[in-house]
Design a protein that fits this description.
Blueprint lengths: L1 H35 L5 H11 L15 E10 L3 H14 L3 E9 L3 E11 L3 H11 L2 E11 L1 H27 L3 H33 E11 L11 H24 L2 H21 L1
Parallel strand pairs: 1-5
Antiparallel strand pairs: 1-4, 2-3, 3-5
Length: about 280
Amino acid sequence: MRTILLPLLFLAFINCSKSGGDKHSVNADLVDIINEEPLPPHSVSEKASSDATSFPTLKGSDTVSRKIIKNGGMRIQVGDIKKAQSQTHEILKKNNAYIQKEEFQNTDVNENLNLTIRVPHKSFDKLINSFSDGVGSVLSKNISSDDVTEEYTDVSIKLANKKIYLEKYRDMLKSATTTKDMLEIQEKIRGLEDEIDVAEGRLRFIDDRVNYSTLELSLYKEKVRSSATSKIGFGSRFIDSLTEGWNSFVAFLLGIISFWPFFLLIPMIIVLWKKWKKRKQ
């Protein structure tokens, strides 16, 4: 009897262990299936935000050089606009500068040539000195410097992080299996691409203003000569005085004529006053 029971117990033990192993393999397969199922729609943003916490964030870097924007404005009185314009072109050529905008005004009183000049920042001070020395009499000059290093660094850091987010969302888009998930991820990608374009445009603008300084130059010539500032002879000054006197007399006469309606009212007032006085007597 013992010889029969021992083999039976041994077979039963083997069957139990085999069924236990099959049960564990099924459970493992179920876990794999659950992990392979697509994320619900609301979990897309949650997964992105959770993954975003693991993104490497750029810190303030010392590699960004100082960004200084230099601007200036000058108003110069000259004797001849054309000659001054020719001198200006020579100065610009020597300093590798160029004219971004040009505007000329010719009035009865003066002539104005307004120029917007862009010059490499290294040549900005040299350009200012060149205009101050030999073109004409400097009437006004203002120079300003704006340090935009902090703004440039901040925009650069945010731009780099946005690019990291963008790549992460693109990877998520490849593995998305439902239409809703794909639409949500694509919307995130579009928003990031727009923000990246704006940031890159801002950096390009700052680089342009840093690399090339701006000078607003105004060349000015008076048409009416002033005896206090111009070196002219007595004869010319005498003729100018006669001309100015005649112009003043004509202006005074025209001013009186403009009051002709009031001159008509004076006789009428006198006649009415005399009649009123006779009636009273």
